[in-house]
Every structure is written in C-alpha cells, then in structure tokens.
Amino acid sequence: MGIRVFSFLFAILLVASPLVHVVRCEADANEVVSEDAGELGIVGDEAQDFSDSSLTSAVGVDTICVFPKNPKRSVPAGEETELLVGIQNEGESSLNVLAIRASLHFSFDHSMLVQNLTVQEFYNATVPLSSQATFPYIFAVSKYLQPGLFDLVGTIIYEIDQHPYQSVFYNGTIEVVEAGGFLSVESIFLVTIGVALLGFLGLWAYGQIQNLSKKTKRAPKVEVGTKTTEANMDEWLQGTAYAQSLSSKSKKKK
C-alpha cells in the first residue's frame, strides 16, 4: 500500500515541480544540483561500463518514471527526448546514484536488441535515507530507425555501502515517429511523384484534344464544272429510254 501511495504522490510532484526533496533539476543547464550532495554531473563518451545485467535492486528502493513534456511517449527519430526518473530510499542507509542507461527492443520480440541508448553518469548524487530525488535522462533513438512501436527499458544504477545495485524504472512501449512532421523525406518523395504523374496526364490529355480538333476540321470544297458533269451524264444515259426521249424532243424543235 505504501509503494502505491508513493508512486501516485511522487508522480504528481515530478510533473508539478522540478524540486523533490533532494534534487533540483536545472532545465537550461547540463548540471543538477543536490541540496545535500553537491554537484551531479552528466557525461557522455567517458562514461563507465554499467552494462552488468547481474545486478539486482536493493531492498527499500523504489523508482518511477515520468515523461514530463511527452505524455503520449512519442519519440521523434534522431531528436532528443527527456524523461525524469524518481527514486525513493526507504532502505537502511543512504545511496549514491551512479548512472542511468536505457535500451530499445522490438516489441514483438523483447529479446532482440535494437539500440543501446545514452549512458548518463552522475557524480556525488546522494539520496539520504527516507528521502526522494528526481534525475533527468535525455536520450535519442537513431534517425534511421523506421517509425513504429518499440519497447524501452530504462535502468538506474546506484550503490549502497560501495555495493552496486540497479533498478528498472521503465519497461514499456514507446512510439517512434518521423521527425519534422509532414515535411519528411518519404512525404516529399510521394508529393514529387504525384506532381509528375499529374503533369504527364495533362500532357496526354492535351495531345488527345489536339488530335480530335484536327479530325473535326472540314475538308475543302472542290468545284466541278457543269459542262463536264453534263457530258458524263450523257454518256451514262446513252441507250436508255430517257436518252431516246431527249433525242426525239430535239428533233421536233428543229
């Protein structure tokens, strides 16, 4: 019951304020300052190896995770995404947070690793007994990753009395989306193909209209002389009754 109450109240505190008992997160800096533990640095390339999967969680340590600016958990490929990791120490002694790491897996086969994400290492991040703290974690999936649903596994590594532990603060699905909204590479390609097809269709229709207009033009009239026509008619009517009547009529006139 106590764990459920902690998860609910601590999630509200994480969203409402960057200050939770111990750690204050500076949004515009690369450092987090702890009230009791001094500086808490974030490093990149020189981070230690925290990939030991044999580590277990310590008794009395609870963790939660919040996507403060991204409640739908949509992660643009190639762009940075921030989440906050909350930790509560109800153990027997204070703990030191060492690092936060995460990995991406296929949702249909969790055993298949897609990408190891950034390891953020912290310095002098002490969480005293019966205290709570929040830590920022910023990561970016590969810009070449195809959009879709993936499983994100996030782990926070800490030590108690110089003994290392780790707790999974998030093990769930996120949606990787295309960066840049509508103006993506695939969208531009499809629009270009559509414009080209419309252009070819217009040219074909114009050619058909031109051919149809040429066929409907009237042919020029040819005048035929009356004399030639009469001569042809006389030859065609020779030997007929009509020709004989005409011959008799011409004799009577004479």
UniProtKB/TrEMBL annotation:
Compartments where found: Endoplasmic reticulum membrane
Pfam assignment, any one: TRAP_alpha
One CC-aspect GO term: endoplasmic reticulum membrane
UniProtKB keywords: Calcium, Endoplasmic reticulum, Membrane, Signal, Transmembrane, Transmembrane helix
UniProt KW Signal keyword: yes
Keyword flag Ion transport: no
Cited function: TRAP proteins are part of a complex whose function is to bind calcium to the ER membrane and thereby regulate the retention of ER resident proteins. May be involved in the recycling of the translocation apparatus after completion of the translocation process or may function as a membrane-bound chaperone facilitating folding of translocated proteins.
Written domain comment of the UniProt record: Shows a remarkable charge distribution with the N-terminus being highly negatively charged, and the cytoplasmic C-terminus positively charged.
Descriptive protein name: Translocon-associated protein subunit alpha
Species assigned in the record: Asparagus officinalis (Garden asparagus)
